[in-house]
Each structure stands twice: as C-alpha cells, then as structure tokens.
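User: Okay, second chain of the day. Same drill as before: sequence in, structure tokens out.
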Amino acid sequence: MLPWLPEDISTYGSQIDSLFYLVFWITNITFVLVQGALIYFLFRYRRRPGQKAVYTHGNNTLEIAWTIAPSIILVVLALLSRASWVEIKETLPPSKYPVVVTAKQFNWDITYPGPDGQFDTADDKTIENDLNVPVNEVVQLRLRSRDVIHSFFIPVLRFKQDMLPGREIFGWFEATKTGKYEIPCAELCGFGHSGMLGHLTVHSAEDYAAWVQAQWPGAAPGGTAGR
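Assistant: Same drill. Structure tokens below.
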C-alpha cells in the first residue's frame, strides 16, 4: 500500500504494517480535516469593514467532544494491537538459534554460542556488526548495552528494541527471505551514532551450514551455531 516502506521479510511484519497503516490514515484524515477547517475559518471570519469582532471564552461541548474522540481512538488502537503485542513482545518462541547482541559506542557485538548451544563456553564466538541466521527459522535475541541506551533496529523485519545498560532484554524474529540487510542504531547514542551500522545476513539452510563450518571447522557438517 505504501511503496516507500522497507521490504517486509518478517513473519509478523504484516501485523505491524497493518497497525501502521491504520494510524497513518487516522492521523492524515485528521490533518486534512483540521487544515480544511483552518482555511475555512480564515475566510469565513476574516476582517470586514464595519463588522466588530466577537470574543468567546470557549465551548464546553466542543472541548468535551475533542477530548473524548481521541480517547476512544486510543482505546480502540490499544485493543486492536493487544494480540500483536502479546505475540511479538510477551511471547518467546522456542529456538535453536540464540544470539547475544551487545551494543557499545559505536558497534554491535554479535555473540554466537557455538555448536554446543551454550553461552559462556570455550566455543563462543563474537563477531562485530555481522548477524548471520538461517531463513525460515526462529532466532532468539538477548539484547544488552555496554554503555548508553541504544536501539537495535532491523527495518525489513519490523524489529526495533531499545537496549538499556544493566538489563538483558529478549526478542525474536523469523526471516522469510534470504539476503543482506542493514541494522542501524535507532537511538541517538553519541557522536558516532550515524556510523553505528551492522548487517543481517539471512542464509539458505545450505549456506548457513557452510557458514557454521567456516566459523567452527570442527563442527559436524550441517550443524548450527546455536543447536
């Protein structure tokens, strides 16, 4: 519907886009109505010779109406988005591909657990700014920040999550298309913020197995970095 939006390669991307479209049209229709009323009032109540200005201290009915209307819209939006929020933010599907992402000024440290599937063991591997995942598989993210607030943003996955110092925040996604995509930081985090850019590479099953073999030469063929 809106061709300038990033490509959607996420299993839950369509839900987020639907909510975005809804908010987009509500705000745009409201903008057009308000600007139309403003233009009408400019002409309707312009200064005319011999006509005195009339002052008003407000209209209680109008004030109640434009307070209630946005409140109803907000409640409806909250109800419509509740199911998506639960699925995306409050549910963590099981995954064979856990990854720890640690933000720092001004890079992403991507840590893979290695063939044993356990973090904090000898076969862990950390790669800067390079997230590799298989296509059509759930990936679990453990998000941390080493210094200030950052925001891990993958536009094509409709994934965006702030990362707070001293906290570990979980997230997940499932990519449906292979390719290489950008991971910018979406939170102003210092003078190097604009250069804080990583990349997500979504591999086919065969290419991902080959990538694992290249990173862990002793791993069994067809193994994963998180199994």
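The first strand starts at residue 97 and ends at 104.

User: Thanks, on to the next one.
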